[in-house]
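README, section 4: Worked example with a bound small molecule

Sections 1 through 3 covered apo chains. Here we extend the same pipeline to holo records, where the ligand is supplied as SMILES alongside the sequence. The molecule in this example is guanosine-5'-triphosphate. Nothing else about the input changes; the structure line simply encodes the ligand pose together with the chain.
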Amino acid sequence: MAAERGAPGCRYQFRVAALGDAAVGKTALLRRFVAGAAGSLEPGPERAAPTAGLECYGRALRLPAGPRVKLQLWDTAGQERFRCITRSFYRNLVGVLLVFDVTNRKSFEHIPDWHQEVLATQGPHRAIFLLLGHKSDLESARCVSAQEAEALAASLGMAFMETSAVNNCNVDLAFQTLATAIQQALQQGDIKMEEGWGGVRLILRPPEPRPPSRKPPAGPCQC
Ligand SMILES: Nc1nc2c(ncn2[C@@H]2O[C@H](COP(=O)(O)OP(=O)(O)OP(=O)(O)O)[C@@H](O)[C@H]2O)c(=O)[nH]1
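The generated complex, written as structure tokens:
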């Protein structure tokens, strides 16, 4: 997957958000993806300042066998007191990463509530979801198995992956998987771009098919 910081040559912009309980690692996950494998994680292993409301990041990527797309990535506050800000924004999402912490059972049990909250506020546009079990590097403290998370994801109609921002496990793959599913839904007409909806934006029109070139008249030279 080729990555760029800007959006040159991107055909679409997909608006995606990471949702889940406070401190599950949404900010670290997004920053890891934007910084790439070589980037350092700010502010380090200590607890980062909790997100207040919403923060936005962006990164472009080329999908396998597809166009280049820009992901507009929204980091949302997990804390309840910011929920009225984040809720107002769900209807303009085309992709949602539902994030829980594999060492925090409550954050896993709250996933159906997060899912329901998005569905309840979405309007006619249906977002594509991906369930992420985050902090997979903390194996010894794990209290949610991959099998039960897979079962939950299947029951909610979405795919599941485990990620870690600390060792950069599956981070690129998670975003690539979500973006590919969005692109396929767009291609199949399951998602439609509409005026006034911010989930998908066309940045660059596909090139028009070129008209057949006019050949010089056959026959003897006229000059
Ligand atoms: N071991 C480990 N720790 C992580 C990982 N990702 C994040 N953390 C730590 O988990 C804590 C919370 O991370 P954040 O990214 O701030 O969590 P958040 O979900 O954005 O929190 P809110 O903004 O309150 O919603 C921080 O101390 C991070 O360093 C990870 O993959 N592995």
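What to look for in the output: The radius of gyration is 21 Å. Helices lie at 26-35, 83-87, 105-109, 111-121, 146-156, 171-187.

Section 5 describes how to batch many such records.
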